[in-house]
Structure formats: C-alpha cells, structure tokens
UniProtKB/TrEMBL annotation:
Alphabetically ordered keywords of this record: Kinase, Membrane, Phosphoprotein, Transferase, Transmembrane, Transmembrane helix, Two-component regulatory system
Molecular function terms, GO-annotated: phosphoprotein phosphatase activity; phosphorelay sensor kinase activity
Organism of derivation: Lacrimispora algidixylanolytica
Coiled-coil positions: none
Keyword GTP-binding: no
GO cellular component, one term: plasma membrane
Catalyzed reactions: ATP + protein L-histidine = ADP + protein N-phospho-L-histidine
EC numbers, comma separated: 2.7.13.3
Protein name per UniProt: histidine kinase
Enzyme class label: transferase
Length: 480
C-alpha cells in the first residue's frame, strides 16, 4: 500500500528508487517493530522480577512477625520495625500493618497509625486471597501479605500492605530505550548503505540494456542487444531483438518498395521518352509510323496509370486498416458470375475456358467492390498466366462459418522457391511475361490485403508446369 501511494505521487519514479524504498521498508519495519516489543518485554520482566522479590522478602518478614507475636506484643519488637523500614526503603516504598480490627498498627511513613483500613484488598487478604497488582498509570506495585497468629493454626491475624515505586525500573527502561534508538539508527544507516549498493548491483544489467537501446535509438541497430544477467532481462532482450529484426525487415522492405516503385514508374516514362525522341528526330515520318508510335505511347501511359491506381489502392488500404469496409449482404454466386462475365473477353483472346462450379447458394457480409477486385485479380492472373487453350475453374462452397472460393488453372505454375514471395509488392516470378501481359506486380498484394480486411485467409497451391490453385476463405458474418 505504501509503495502504491508513492508510485501514485510520482509516476516517473525510477526502478532503482523503487527498489531502494522497498528494501529499506522491508529491512526497517522489523527493526522498528522489534524495538518496542523487546522494550515492553524487558519492562514487564523487570516489574515481575521486582514484585516477586518484594513478595519473597515480605513473606520472610511476615513469618518473623508470626513467630515473634508482633501483632499482640506490647511494646512491639523494634528490630522488626527497623527491618520493615529498611525493606520499605530498599523497595522505595511503604509498608503498613493492619490488625484483625482493620486498624493500622504500624506504618513506615508514620502517617496512618491508628486509622482504619477496610479496603477491598485487605478484606480479601483476611479471607485468604492475596493481591499482587501493578498500577501502570501511577507507576507503583501494591501487594497484600497475610500475617498468621501462629505457625500451627494458620489463622490470619493481620495483613501487611506493601506499595513499591517502579520509577527506578522505568528510568532503567528509558535508558535502554535511548540506547536502543541509537542502535536502530545505526542499523538503518548500515541497511541504507547495503540497500543502495544492492540496488546498484541489481540495476547494472538494466543500465547496460538502456545503453544498448540508446545506441539503437540513435540508428545503430547492427549491434545485438544482449543482457543475460536475469531471466527477465533475457526475455526483454529477446523481445527487443525480435522487434529490431522486424524493424530491419520493414526498413529493408520499405527501401525495396521505394526502389521498385521508382523502377516501375520510370520504365513507362523511359519508353515514352524514347518513342517521343524517335518521332522528334524523324523528318517527314509517315503517318502510319506516327500512329504506331502514338499507340505505343498510349499503352505505356495506360500502364503508368494502372501502376499509380494500384499504388493508391494499397496506400488507402494500409491507412484505413480495414476501417473503411462498406459491409453489406451480398450474393457471392451472382458476384462471381458477374466477374467471369466481365473477364470472358480476355479469356476468349487466349482461348481459355472459364468454368464456374457453384456447390451451394452463398450470401455473406462483405464489401462488394473490394471483394470483387480481389477475386477479379485472382481470375485474371489465372487467365494471363495460362496455357493456350487452357482452362480456369472457379468453385464456390460454404459451411456453417465460412465460404470458400477456389480459383484453379491449367497454367504454367509457380516454382516452389518463389511461392512465399508472390504476395510481396512488385514481386514477379517471370518479369518478362508480366510486362507482356500488363501486370504491375501489385495485384496479389492488393488481393491478400482485401481478404485479410474481411478477416479471411488466402492459400496457394502450385506445381511448376501443372497449374496453380488459390483458395479464399472468408467468414459468412463479418464481426467488426
């Protein structure tokens, strides 16, 4: 609780300061608890020992009075009176003798002789019940000791009332307490030095970790971050190294992306410039050549425009991270039929047969435009990278949770070593053929991003020379 309050007061408190406070509290609390407990025990032992001593001494005196007949003899034995005075002085107290008539016959202070004392303690003592009490407020002990008429009958003939001051004992306890407080200060001081050194030793691996992190923050991410002093620092450094590894991969990917974007955008511009310079350098070029060159320029401009559109689509999806999906219930069968109808002219040019196999009617919560783009990319790629007179089969199925779209083709296939890279931006397995078919290298990246935005999954199965199958799995009900 105390540490929680400290942390609430200062949220920026360091771990080292927290450790020092915690260790000091853990070490100091027992010291300060033990001190009053031990002093209290010491004080009680002194008082108990004093009262026991008084009781023993007074019993001896009582027995002497019984044997000498002190209560009935006249005049009374001066030796016993003197001994009684000595014992009273020794205990820094007072001794009063009360006879059977409750009259005080002897008083070491000589103040109450002849007076009547019928206090509760005296009455109980005549009844055979001795009292032995300590008054902590007034700091004195009070005892009652019976005085018997003779040693045979055991008949109580008088009562000895003894009061003894505990002031000297309490002064002794105060002196011990003073010395104990000084000792406690010394213990806490030594403990503070040990705690500071221990906290410094404990914090050393964390300070080294901080130094390495500072270097990494300054840009030096090549030096591995390692601290094996504790399991905790090992776990932290492992997590940090994993994070740095991912950051390096992201940074490398960013550099590659920028390089690829620059290259992809520059290529059409270079072609346009070459064609334009060729036309400018020709004198009296025929109209047919102008038309041919202008047609080529138009193709390059269209290619540049498609690259820019795809890049903008990716940027928008990266920025929104799925937040801009326009979810509605869509008939997936009708959507796929519309996509195939739109792509049949492209398939017809390559004499590729498009086959749609619908196992069941499917309605799902999707963004129709984005999903249409993703599925169109898969089918269009299957057509473009197919054999002459090949086929593309699109299969739709569903269970109680998901619907599945399989796009299989009889195309050229993808070598196994390239399959894990096909979803990367601008990655092409066959760059020459991609440019011939007008591909930008962004289609599959966009497709995968859209499917992930729908909380779905995209799997690839392919064998070189035997075709490729993409399987899309998307939940029937979208949960935001």
């Amino acid at each position: 609780m105390f540490l929680d309050k400290i942390l609430k007061i200062n949220r920026t408190i360091s771990l080292r300061a927290t450790l020092i406070i915690a260790f000091l509290l853990i070490g100091s609390i027992p010291v300060f608890i033990q001190s009053p407990v031990m002093l209290g025990s010491y004080k009680q032992n002194l008082i108990d020992s004093r009262m026991q001593d008084i009781q023993n001494q007074c019993w001896i005196l009582s027995n002497k009075m019984t044997r000498s007949g002190y209560l009935t003899s006249e005049p009374r034995d001066p030796l016993l009176d003197n001994e009684m005075s000595v014992k009273a002085d020794m205990f820094n107290g007072r001794i009063v003798i009360v006879n059977r008539s409750f009259r005080i016959i002897s008083d070491t202070f000589s103040l109450s002789i002849g007076k009547i004392n019928v206090s509760e303690e005296v009455i109980k003592c005549f009844g055979g019940e001795n009292s032995n009490k300590y008054n902590s407020e007034k700091r004195y002990s009070a005892l009652t000791i019976p005085i018997y008429s003779n040693s045979q009958d055991k008949e109580i003939d008088g009562v000895m009332i003894v009061t003894a001051s505990a002031e000297d004992l309490l002064n002794r306890v105060a002196q011990v307490s003073e010395k104990g407080s000084l000792l406690n200060v010394m213990i806490v001081s030594i403990l503070a030095i040990i705690v500071v050194l221990l906290a410094k030793l404990i914090m050393k691996p964390f300070q080294e970790l901080q130094r390495l992190l500072n270097r990494a923050s300054e840009g030096d991410m090549d030096e591995p971050i390692s601290s094996r002093a504790y399991k905790e620092t090992m776990a932290i450094t492992d997590s940090i190294n994993q994070t740095l590894k991912k950051l390096k991969a992201v940074d490398k990917s960013r550099e590659e992306f920028v390089s690829n974007v620059s290259h992809e955008l520059k290529t059409p511009i270079t072609s346009i410039r070459v064609l334009a310079d060729s036309l400018t350098g020709m004198e009296d070029a025929p109209v047919e050549l102008y038309r041919e060159f202008m047609s080529d320029i138009s193709v390059e401009i269209e290619r540049e425009s498609k690259i820019i559109d795809d890049l903008l689509a990716l940027v928008r999806m990266d920025k929104t991270s799925g937040g801009s999906l326009n979810i509605a219930q869509v008939n997936i069968n009708g959507l796929l039929e519309l996509i195939l109808k739109r792509l049949r002219p492209i398939a017809g040019k390559r004499n590729v047969e498009l086959i749609f196999e619908s196992i069941r009617e499917v309605t799902a919560d999707v963004d129709e435009m984005k999903l249409s783009l993703a599925l169109s990319n898969l089918v269009e790629n299957a057509i473009k990278y197919n054999m002459e007179s090949g086929w593309v089969r699109v299969t739709l199925d569903a269970d109680h949770k998901f619907f599945y779209v399989k796009v299989a083709d009889s195309g050229i296939g993808i070598p196994e070593e390239f399959q894990e890279h096909v979803f990367e931006r601008f990655y092409r397995v066959d760059k020459a053929r991609s440019r011939e078919t007008g591909g930008t290298g962004l289609g599959l990246s966009i497709t995968k991003k859209i499917i992930l935005m729908h909380q779905g999954a995209l799997k690839l199965q392919s064998k070189e020379g035997e075709g490729t199958t993409f399987t899309v799995r998307i939940p029937l009900t979208y949960i935001s």
